Amino acid sequence: MTTAQDTTASPAATRADLITPALLLDRSKLTRNIQRLADRARALGVVLRPHLKTAKSIDVARIAFPDGPGPITVSTLAEAEYFAAHGYRDITYAVGLSPAAAQRAMALCARTGAEVKLLLDSPGQADALRAAREATGVVPSVLIELDCDDHRGGLKPDDPLLLEVADRVVAAGATLAGVLAHAGESYGLSTPDALVKAAENERQATVQAAKTLRAHGHPCPIVSIGSTPTAHFAENLDGITELRAGVYMFFDLVQHGVGVCTLDDLAISVLTTVIGTKPEKGWILVDAGWMALSRDRGTANQRVDQGYGLVCDESGHVLEDVIVAEASQEHGILKIRSGVGKPMPDLPIGTRLRILPNHACAMAAQHDSYAVVEGTAPEILAQWPRMRGW
């Protein structure tokens, strides 16, 4: 796979020049993760529509699309506007629709020529499409959200409201493009068999809804599914047209706990500095608190609780059983994992460390840019800006 050109020169020549806390992105791991799912989607015969809510970066998008813009998923209209400004035209806005969002999205389509597909699951949302069409002159393109595992919003595939919503979309003068599901409950699983079963359930539920719509005169060309766990464990995608996933580009400790990746696949980390010790408590204090790491404790309900993040040395080698056990706004407290009963390694003041993310989306969201690195090499290759906001 061709890699993206570094678009922004870094003011820091090496990791030692960075002011901590700083967000690091390993380009080789990023590229490997992206290629892995691209190959899998190709083998399964579906279009891959990456979710860029995790990366929020045109430079990362160019790794995923080395030959030019392709189909993407976003979670905010600010993301849609940002990527449209960089030439992306096939965009799915995968968040339940508000009337104001419908008009903003259609205004973006009118300005740029992009197609922003909207997501809804109620007659009221469908009715709001008429006002967006009349205000902007753009015919909205719509996906009906499905609930395949009781995780979030969406309609059950056998809900009679499915056909009512579809009819109301058409009555509002919009185009019904298809159906979309997200197997969010897969994040709570941890065995290959369970993940394969969740992926097949996601497939069957979505294909069933598409068949129902087609039987009642709605073409339903797009049948879209995706979560990072099910995307990597699906064995059969018959009837599915596209696959979505986002955190797979970076991976994180939650995905490691689910069993989707190894620790060596985690592409982002926060570089931090030791700023204090409390030997009598077994503490090491660092300058990365929840403002740098996020408050996400997604591993707390998994078999291994990683606190606010797993600790590595500056080169990225894991310090076994050392975690960020507590976090205040700008301080992290490192401890040995509870119950292990071994001493804390010697980490003098000034020592540089890396913290691996519980949730890559949340950790990255705390920062304005990525300091791009390659493996254990000390050099900073580039600074890639991240977009933010809604």
Could you give the order of the helices and strands?
Answer: EHEHEHEHEHEHEHEHEHEEHEEEEHEE
- Counting helices, strands and paired strands, the structural category is alpha/beta
Number of domains: 2
The CATH C-level class name of the largest domain: Alpha Beta
Which spans have pLDDT < 50 for at least 5 consecutive residues?
1-5
> On the 0-100 scale, what is the average pLDDT?
96
CATH level-two architecture of the largest domain = Alpha-Beta Barrel
Tell me the number of helical segments per DSSP (H or I, 4 or more residues long).
11
The CATH topology of the largest domain is given as TIM Barrel
CATH level 4 superfamily of the largest domain: Alanine racemase
What does this structure look like?
The protein has 390 residues and is of the alpha/beta class. It has two domains: 28-251, Alpha-Beta Barrel (TIM Barrel); 267-356, Beta Barrel (Lyase, Ornithine Decarboxylase, Chain A, domain 1), CATH 2.40.37.20. It is 31% helix and 24% strand. It contains eleven helices and 17 strands. It has an eight-stranded parallel β-sheet. Helix 8 (228-233) links the parallel strand 8 and strand 9. It is elongated, with a radius of gyration of 22 Å. Mean pLDDT is 96; it is low at 1-5.
